[in-house]
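Input:
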Amino acid sequence: MAFTHLRELVELAQSRGVKISRVMLDVEMDQSGATENEIFDKMSYQFDVMEEAVRKGTNEPVQSRSGITGGDGYRMYEYVKKGRSFIDGAALSAMAYALSVSEVNSAMGRIVATPTAGSAGILPGVLVSVLDSGRYKREDIVMSLMTAAAIGLVIANSASISGAAGGCQAEVGSATAMAAGALVELADGTPEQVTHAVGLALKNSLGLVCDPVAGLVEIPCIVRNGLHSITALAAADMALAGVRSIIPPDEVIAAMYRIGNELPLSLRETGIGGLAGTPTGKAIRERVFGRASGTDVPTPTAGVRACQTRAVGVRDTSMPEDHTAKTKAELGETHKLDGTQQKTREGQTTV
Amino acid sequence: MKYNGMFEIIGPVMVGPSSSHTAGALRIGQIARQLLGIEPEYVTFQLFGSFAETYQGHGTDLALIAGVLGLTTDDDDVRRADELAVERGLEYQFTKGSGGQYHPNTVAINISGGDRAVRLIASSLGGGKAEVQELEGLPLRFSAEIPTLILYHQDRNGFLAKVSQLLDNAGYNIARLALERWRRGGDAITVCEVDGPLKSDICEVMRSSIPGLKELRVLDAGF
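Output:
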C-alpha cells in the first residue's frame, strides 16, 4: 500500500495537486490491475446498492429478523416531512436513511459493508441525503466513496475495523470518520481538512463499546448508526469552517487502537457486558433464543449447553475440545437434521 | 498490511447482519470448500471467542454453511443455508472451543468429502475479510483475496525454483510465497499468491512437470 497514515495520504495528494479520491483510485488501479472505468463502475454499483437499502427502509417499515427492532427509519422519515424538527431536515433525513440501512441489514437484507455491516448505515445515510439535496453530482459522490475507502484503509491497517477486536469505536467510529472525510472532499475542502474531519469525528467516537443485546446487530447498533450520521455531518462542517483536530488525526487513530486493546472482552462483541448485560438486555436475549445465556461470566457449561441446544446437524455433541483432524468415519455415527430439530431452531430465532 | 484494496473497505455487498460474523464467516466457508476441491459431505466447525458467544444472533452458523455450499455473500439463500445443506446432503456440526491465542472471531474447520479431508483454522478480521491462520496444523497465513495456489508436496531441493520458473515462464508475478514442512525431506505445503487471474493450463503444466508435487488446489478470489 502506498500509504499507511493520513499524513502520507495528504502529502501524496498535495504533491500531485489532486484530491484524495484520485490518489486512492490510482493506487487501486496499480494494485488490482483493473482500469479506471472498471473501478469507477464497481464503486458506482456499490452506491446503487446503498441507495436501494436506503429507499427500502424509508418507503415502508422494515422489521428485523428477530422481531425486536424495526420501523425507526420509516418513523423518522415521516417525521422529517412534517418540517417541525429541531435540527435541519436534510441532516435529519441522513439519520432516517442511516437507520433504514441498518434495519435492512438486521433483516438479513442486502447492504454494503462500509466498512462493516454493523456500521453500514452511516455512509449511505449522509451520501444519499447529499444526493437528494441536488447540490452534488452522482459521479462526484461515487468518487467521494473512494476518499472514504482511503481513510478506512488507513484506520483498518493501523488500528482496527472489527468490533470484536476494537469495540464499536472501530466500526461506527471508523464509519463516522470516513463519512466526515468524504463530505469534506465533496464540498471541495482541502486534503488536510479531510483528515481534520476524520480526527474530529473519531475523537467523538473514542471509547464506544461493542455491547449488542443478545449478540444481535440491532440494539444499540441501529440507533448508533442514525445518531453518528449527524456526527459525521457536523464534523465535516467543523473541518470546512477551519476547525482543526489539535491531536493529529493519525494520533487519534493510534489512540483508538490502544483504547480497543484495553477494552475488556465483555465489551467487545461478546454480547455479555454493557447494554447486553442489563436486565432488559438479558430478558430480550432469553426471549429471542429461549434460554438464559450471555451471563456476566461465560462458563464452559453455558457453552456446552449452547452447543447442545443448537446442535442442529447431529445428535452427538461430544466433539473433542482440542482441534484434531477427524473425518466422518472417525467421528462415528452422525444424524442428519430432521423435522423436529428444524422446528426447535425456528422456535429459537422467532419471538 | 491487512487490507490492500478499496473494496475491502467499501464492500462487500452482502446480506446482513454482520460483516465479520456473516460475510467474513461465509468467506471462510468458501475457502474451506475450495481447499477441499470436491463436493463436501461432512464438516465440523469449532467456534472461538466472539464467534462462539454470538454466532446465533449473527447467523454465523448459516454463513459458514453457506460458504461451504459455495454461496456468495450477497445471496438471499444465506438465511436458509441449513435447509440447503439438508437438500444437498451436507452434514455439519458446531462446537465451542476455548483457549488458543487467536483473533476473537476464529473457527477451526474439519471438512471432508470422498477420500479427501482438510483442516484449517481461520479468522474473520472485520469488514468481511477472512484470513486462514493454520492449514493442516502448519502456520500458513493467507486471505485468498488474490488467486492463490496451494501446493501439497514433498520437501526437496529445487522445488520452489521449479515453481517460480514455471510461473515466470507463464507471465505470472508471485505476490507472496510461504513454505512450511513437517520435517526436512518430508511432507510440505507451499502457499503461493499470484497477480492476475490464473488460467487452468498453468495448473496442468505444474501438475505434470514439478517433481514431488502431490496435490494442487487453486483458490479463486472471484467468489
